[in-house]
Every structure is written in C-alpha cells, then in structure tokens.
Amino acid sequence: MKREFSMDRRAYLKSVGAVGVAGLVSGCQGSETTTEPAEDAETDTGAGATTDAGAGMTTEGAAGTIVPGTAPGFPPFEYRTDEGELVGFDVDLVAEVVGRTDYQLGEWVDMDFGALIGSLNNGEIDLIAAGMTINDKRDQQIDFSDPYWEANQAVIVREDGDFQPSAVGDLSGHRVGAQSGTTGEDQVEGLIEDGTLSGSDYRQYDNYTLAVQDLENGNVDAVVIDVPVAENFAANRAVTIAFTIETGERFGLGLREDDDRVSAINDALAEVRDDGTYDELVAEYFE
C-alpha cells in the first residue's frame, strides 16, 4: 500500500512538537479536544471520545468490520496534525494489518487513554491501537495480539537546565511528571513506594504533550516517558533524554477477551513483518 502525505513526516512531527499537538487533549490522553468538524461528521461516544466522520458505535462490531480506537497525543505512534488528520505508526500499522484480513477497517475513534479498555469491552470499539503496554492487569481485562513493539522508559529534562540526572536516585527531591495510566506513571509510583520520591513531588498529566510543556516552563524537573516518544520530543523541543530505565515493555493491539479475530490479527501481523512492510513503517516514523 502506498502511503501519501501532504507534507514530509518529519515536518509533521516538528510541527506537532512545536505547537504541543495543536487541537489535542488537555490531559493523559484525558479530556481531549479535537479539531471540530461539522455537527454531522462527529459522534460523541462518551468519556471524551470522538470519531472521525462517518464512524459510529458498535456492540460486537459491524459484521466484517473492525472499528479501531486510539488516544492521540503519543507521537509518532498516534497524533493529529494541525489540520486534524489522525496519523502515526499505529494508524498505518493497523491499516496494513486489517487490510491483510477478511475484515474491513472502520473509522477511527479517539478518546482518553484511560477510557480505551472500557470502550472496547462496551463494544464502542473493536480494537485498541495506542502504544499500549501488555501487562498482567490489562491482560486480565482484554486480550492482546502478539507484541509489535518493544520499548523502555526515558527520563527527559530541560536541555539547558541545571538538573541533569544520570540515575533514578538523582530524582529525589525533584518534581517528576508522568502521564496517568502509563508505564511511566508505574515507574514514578514505584519510586514513591520505595521512598526515592515524595508523593507531593509527583505531577500527573492526562497527556504527554502537556507534561513536556510543563517541563519546558520549569513547572516540573523531569518527565518519565516511553523512549521512542521521548526521542521525538527531544528532536523537536528544548528537552533531552537524561537516562533510560530498562523496563522491557511490549506493545500489543487490544481486543475483547475471547474475540476470535485475534488469530487473524496475529497472522496479519506476521505477514506485515515477513513482507517487509513493518520495516518500511519503522523507517518512515522512527529513522
């Protein structure tokens, strides 16, 4: 499948980084605000969810159709351009994967990150593609595809700031931010539990873009964030990666438990890897 863009991908990312993903959410992927189309082009699905034009809610998913859901604000995996277009690695990957099955890809639904699992289980969407880490808690609520990405966590700080930590112990006594419901937050909460950080020094955000904006403005001293997303911000904003935390996370596509489409998705994922399309997408979005 040939992918055409109205402007270079790197220009997109730079534009998105420079304006804080214009028109996006006000937090952890929470309370999102998207570019508003005409009234008949957007459907409210609750929990701050919106759909692209023509999308609707499903109970079990329309026959032969998979309705995907995501939480923009996680570049380069998923984000909206200044023009309101939903783009990203996950978006293209899902299009390629579903295109290799007998199912049709429905319109994307975007919502708060924390609402994705509930919306999946309520039948509002059929598949989650949002850089979601596979963990035991989530695996008890939904099924995951085979992993499609491995990542660690990064600690980012102001590029020209005096605070340049080299290990988690250096974060003690400093204000640290993370996005709610993410592995980054899990790392911060672990530091609070072991006494490295004070709970009063933790700043929770609904969206990584807001966290990075607060970092640049000096309201926090560091932010814990997924490595590939940290690299994107470091390339386009006045922040830098101070060090990484080895977590060995694996991202997966989420489906309802016992959904018989999981096997079809896994087979298609394998095909996308085997035919070189996966490597092309990686090169397009990360190199």
CATH homology group of the largest domain? Periplasmic binding protein-like II
Order of helices and strands: HEEEEEHEEHEHEEEHEHEHEEHH
SS content category: alpha/beta
What portion of residues belong to β-strands? 15-25%
Tell me the total number of β-strands. Answer: 15
Uncertain stretches of 5 or more adjacent residues: 1-48, 53-63
- Which CATH-level-2 architecture of the largest domain? 3-Layer(aba) Sandwich
What is the CA–CA distance across the termini?
Answer: 20 Å
Helix percentage: 25-40%
Mean pLDDT: 82
Q: Domains counted in the coordinates: how many?
A: 2
> Counting H and I runs of at least 4 residues, what is the number of helices?
9
Using the CA coordinates, give the radius of gyration.
Answer: 18 Å
Shape annotation:
globular
* Main sheet: strands, sense, barrel: 5 strands, mixed
Order of strands in the sheet with most strands: 12-11-13-10-14
Give the CATH level 1 class of the largest domain: Alpha Beta
Brief synopsis:
The protein has 287 residues and is an alpha/beta fold.
List keywords for this structure.
2 domains, D-Maltodextrin-Binding Protein, domain 2, 287 residues, single chain, four-stranded mixed sheet, 15 strands, alpha/beta, disordered N terminus, five-stranded mixed sheet
